Amino acid sequence: MSIGTGLKLVGAGLAIGLAVVGAGQGQGQAAKGALESIGRNPQAYNKIFTPFLLAMALIEFQAILGLIIAFIIIGK
């Protein structure tokens, strides 16, 4: 394996690793906020749950995008 191939694999690993760490942090913060809000006001569940799910999907897209970028880096 050449140095270029090794650096390519390190870059791909960093791309997916940092994306997943960021997504995990974001999902944790979003879940914390939503659950605290629902805990304080249970009647607001219907108003909080749908935006929460949308936020989780958008945050998860960051991790998926990191995976796609890692595959692109490895493919070249």
Automatic annotation (TrEMBL):
Entry keyword set: ATP synthesis, Cell membrane, CF(0), Hydrogen ion transport, Ion transport, Lipid-binding, Membrane, Transmembrane, Transmembrane helix, Transport
Pfam families: ATP-synt_C
Gene3D superfamilies: F1F0 ATP synthase subunit C
InterPro entries: ATP_synth_F0_csu (IPR000454), ATP_synth_F0_csu_DDCD_BS (IPR020537), ATP_synth_F0_csu_sf (IPR038662), ATPase_proteolipid_c-like_dom (IPR002379), F/V-ATP_Csub_sf (IPR035921)
Transmembrane segments: 52-74
PROSITE patterns in UniProt: ATPASE_C (PS00605)
Annotated site location: Reversibly protonated during proton transport: 60
Annotated membrane topology: Multi-pass membrane protein
Keyword Cell membrane: yes
Domain of life the protein comes from: Bacteria
Record flagged with keyword Membrane: yes
Main location: membrane
Residue ranges constituting the V-ATPase proteolipid subunit C-like domain according to the UniProt record: 10-73
GO molecular function: lipid binding; proton-transporting ATP synthase activity, rotational mechanism
HAMAP family hit by this protein: ATP_synth_c_bact (MF_01396)
Family stated for the protein in its record: Belongs to the ATPase C chain family.
Protein name in UniProt: ATP synthase subunit c
Species of origin: Silvanigrella paludirubra
Organism lineage: Bacteria, Pseudomonadati, Bdellovibrionota, Oligoflexia, Silvanigrellales
